[in-house]
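Figure-free illustration: sequence to structure, shown twice.
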Amino acid sequence: MAIEKQVVILTEAASFQVKEMMAHNEEEHASLRVAVKGGGCSGLSYGMAFDNDVNEDDFTDNQFGIRILVSKDDAGILQGTKIDFKQSLMGGGFTIDNPNALASCGCGTSFKAAARPAEPQSCE
């Protein structure tokens, strides 16, 4: 059985964007999975995807009507991470502020964390 615990913080602006994407992709009943994977020039990168499966070792939380899933393996690296959505004249995008990141790359898509060493890769 999944464990209820807030790992990431989703802002209201991010939740509006997630809900819009869910509706566009006909995924209104899915959960938002936030994950960490190997990749990027700093070694780790973030992933967000819609998921209909809840694993036994997932941490779950509901924010602004969105069920958020984080695996037990990723929870330590993501604890306290704030996900926001910023709109500008150049378009919009999600921003991720992770207090556990030791360093971020110049392109802003990857990071380094003490809890999970990873080999840097190209930023393509």
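We now fold a second protein in the same way, so the two outputs can be compared directly.
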Amino acid sequence: MSEQLAPTLCPPRVRHHDVIVVGAGQAGLAVSWHLTRRGIDHLLLERDTTAHEWRDGRWDNFTLVTPNWQCVLPGYAYDGPDPDGFMARDEVYRFVRGYADSFGAPVLEHAGVRAVTRAPRGGYDLETAAGSFHANQVVVATGGYHVPTVPRFAERLPASITQLHSAGYRSPAALPAGAVLVVGTGQSGAQIAEDLHLAGREVHLAVGNAPRVARFYRGRDCVAWLHDMGHYDVPIEDQPGGIGKRENTNHYVTGRDGGRDIDLRRFALEGMALYGRMTGLDPDGTARFDTSLERSLDAADAVADGIKNAIDGYIARAGIDAPMEPRYTPVWRPEHERTALDLRAAGISAVVWSVGFRTDYRWLRAGVFDGEGHPCHNRGVTTSPGLYFVGLPWLHTWGSGRFAAIARDAEYLAERIAAAATATVAA
């Protein structure tokens, strides 16, 4: 039989590892570091290249919203000249790539996982772009933001108007000339609106219900105060609302130019047009909005003020000498709420949808998901033996979705993985 025909008649070669980690971003790499220290055989499978989301999935002027001193991974920490600053996109990419290189993380790139199933002989079978694998245990480190979402009525936009999701936004110059409508004010939407505004573009912004936080208060970054207060360490089950916190939108703020508040009211004074939540789009190209603008602005301010109240209380209890600071006073209020916008008449050339993502775990064939497709777990440990998640928002605490607590989450899972491996050997 010819050598060329033989592979079609023989079973594919299956490569085995004790542990396979799906995803080579900072969360997967943190788990890998712990497994490497314990001498546990493992492999990271990455559909693209290591840490590529930091380079390919952010806009040109992106910066972290958490200070550089919080960028701490197991055995590795930011050691640059600006610990209180905020790394830009490419700096974060180099930081995470440098982490992978620092311990020789065993990453197989361009090996996107197509299916993970329970193996009849135990463990898990994985089908990937790089072939077939088997692992005793699997860690899913693909994050929680997989598929960009847009409202169904987006299909009614006139063909002459460019539309893209925030995940595809790169810069003001990359959009056609004209006014831009940004829909949504989570972290991405608010920062993209600011990016366009600072570039001198005419911006129309549909404001959602995202909260905000002050960048600095009483002489320090609010993140520093909250860190000292242990706010990022409170388990989700001890938070008001419990696991419902996982559905919360992040507070908007920016690390740009050394860090500052994002004040949508100030933007309005400077010419940005604000609306309530976008509710629909008429066939003639008229966008519709509800009358939630003032309520949303007030609610965002109330959250920021509540955080300041908590900081004040901590300062008082701890007897800290910190400068006093006047509270924020709204600089603008809508005289009336506009509920319609003729996109053509307003010269809108582009719409940026910043309304979130949905999960997509169709490749993971395990009964560990709720009715909305979110994984069910306790600190990343699922009911399917040897299957774990890491790097999800609120996996265990508020810090879980950021650099701040990935080290802790990764260590916890590595301990569970090591214990399971030991039990298997003993059996």
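Summary for the second example: The chain is about 25% helix and 20% strand.
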